[in-house]
Design brief:
Phosphorylase Kinase, domain 1; EC 2.7.11.1; serine/threonine-protein kinase; Transferase(Phosphotransferase), domain 1; Aminoglycoside_PTrfase; Prot_kinase_dom
Length: 289
């Protein structure tokens, strides 16, 4: 049984694209967990099928993120296997628990404890890091040989963003694509900070601690037709745990504060809005002894 499951995960990974690698896991992108179905028409009915609407229309696929906790060579195999199983199982349970409590998180689509693979819904949108101008995570500087090649394209992109933002003089700061899209639906940075605080309060009310609360692990997803035009989706619960004391919540908030200070120094003052919204969401009893 475990061999069959492991081979299924290996097959998924072999068809996926590696998009990120960290110390604990590799992250892959996959178009769908299931192969696209194909319908083959008999030759005798080919003329009929060509003249009539095709019935081979399939439901839209769900893009998937595969998180593979690879074996660690510095750990004993037995210990490594046990840790991988427990951490992956807790991450899946934490995400499910959050979803039931109304916290916006990726849906869990695939769990393979033995193979160390977790399949999650791919969240379309931008990370808060990107929206606030911190760039995409893992973004590297262009080497000298490539700079001249990309100078022209970069200049065109800058000019396009300036025009989109109505900055004809070119004196304003170039905004990210995510921030431009949010402004088009009348969302300000202050409103974004308030939404982040609300999302964190909903998370902590479940007594789940994220463990790596940075702006890279918060996604902004547009929700056309919903009550709110967008939502904050919390991702990457690989270091999550259950709160034992009040200080556990404080550590989560402190990590986020440091992320603002280091990655978004120009937005550090807005962090107060996150705390105000968080306090309202947690309620008075949570803040008083």
């Amino acid at each position: 049984m475990s061999t069959a499951i492991a081979s299924a995960s290996s097959h998924l990974i072999s068809n996926a694209t590696l998009i990120k690698q960290g110390a604990e896991a590799k992250v892959y992108s996959l178009l769908s967990l299931y192969p696209e179905p194909q319908i083959f028409w008999p030759e005798s009915s080919s003329s009929t099928s060509s003249s009539s609407p095709s019935s081979s229309t399939t439901a839209g696929t769900t893009p998937v993120i595969l998180k593979y906790r690879f074996p660690k060579q510095y750990r004993h195999p037995t210990l490594d296997s046990a840790l991988t199983r427990s951490r992956l199982a807790f991450e899946a349970r934490a995400l499910t628990r959050c979803a039931r409590a109304g916290v916006a998180v990726p849906r869990v689509l695939w769990v393979d404890e033995g193979g160390g693979v977790l399949g999650l819904e791919k969240v379309e949108g931008w990370s808060v890091r990107e929206v606030l101008g911190g760039g995409a995570e893992g973004e590297i500087e262009v080497v000298e040989e490539e700079e001249e090649e990309q100078e022209g394209d970069a200049a065109e992109d800058v000019e396009r963003l300036k025009l989109d933002d109505g900055d004809e003089d070119g004196l304003g700061q170039v905004e990210s694509e995510g921030m431009i899209q949010l402004k088009r639906i009348s969302v300000t940075q202050e409103h974004l900070m308030s939404s982040i605080g609300t999302a964190l309060s909903r998370l902590h009310i479940t007594t789940i601690i994220h463990g790596d609360l940075t702006t890279s692990n918060m996604m902004v997803r547009l929700t056309p037709g919903a009550a709110q035009p967008y939502e904050i989706v919390l991702i990457d619960f690989g270091l999550s745990s259950t709160a034992q004391v009040a200080e556990n919540y404080a550590v989560d908030l402190y990590v986020l504060e440091r992320a603002f200070a280091s990655t978004h120094p120009q937005s550090e003052g807005l962090y107060a809005g996150v705390l105000e919204s968080y306090a309202r969401g947690m309620g008075e009893k949570r803040w008083q002894p």
